[in-house]
């Protein structure tokens, strides 16, 4: 895969104050590290980076054209991490990792679904529990995605990691037997769920049996109010009786 070109500049003032000034100017503070070279604080044009991210080449090899007062240079790197603001999701920091072109990398790539599953004609839909797989390859061979061709899949079929399409120069690291795609019938499940009362509804419609196995009596709101009033009345009578007994005991002591 051809490397993506990105021009960056060495930061003159690393730190929080310098980073805030960069962001106001449409630049993103970043760092590039790895290999035997020391880490370098750099600045990246926000619009240029956004263009790369929109193009879907986030995982591609990036040729960083570094503008440095000590001398311009080109460093091969990959985009390692993107940090965003928790509220507005604006990119606030970037990590680049230098790579040696002759040394393999291990990294995660997305799974891209292609085709229309044969089982879709009979109500089957795709279920995809796994979105990325791990691969190993040279930096120049980093694939944009692992291709999942679902066209042959019938209802009940499963596509494992071993069935993904990858270039011959790329080695799959993820467990080959891991289920990536399955074709299920959601319609049947939905109808079954509709026919089965919800937990709360089932509890209301069929009260649980007590310890003896007998079903509790179901009463209406009016009956509940009457029983509650009766209990309150009986409670009041007991309290009155207790008070009278205590009063009688006091009189007897006198």
Structure description:
27% of the residues lie in helices and 32% in strands. The longest helix is centred in the last third of the chain and has 33 residues, at 221-253. The protein has helices spanning 16-24, 46-54, 186-195, 199-205, 221-253; strands spanning 4-10, 27-33, 40-45, 62-67, 73-84, 91-98, 105-114, 124-127, 132-137, 146-149, 158-160, 171-172, 179-185. It has five helices and 13 strands. The protein is α+β, with helices and mostly antiparallel strands and 254 residues long. It is flat, with a radius of gyration of 34 Å.
Write the layout of secondary structure elements.
Blueprint: E1 4-10, H1 16-24, E2 27-33, E3 40-45, H2 46-54, E4 62-67, E5 73-84, E6 91-98, E7 105-114, E8 124-127, E9 132-137, E10 146-149, E11 158-160, E12 171-172, E13 179-185, H3 186-195, H4 199-205, H5 221-253
Parallel strand pairs: 1-4, 2-6, 7-10
Antiparallel strand pairs: 1-3, 2-3, 4-5, 5-6, 7-9, 8-13, 9-12, 11-13
Please summarize what this structure is.
The chain has 254 residues and is of the alpha+beta class.
Could you report the average pLDDT, rounded to the nearest whole number? 81
Strand order of the largest sheet: 1-3-2-6-5-4
Indicate the overall shape.
flat
CATH architecture heading of the largest domain = Beta Barrel
The count of strands amounts to 13
Structural class: alpha+beta
Order of helices and strands: EHEEHEEEEEEEEEEHHH
Q: What distance separates the N and C termini?
A: 107 Å
CATH superfamily of the largest domain: Ribosomal Protein L25, Chain P
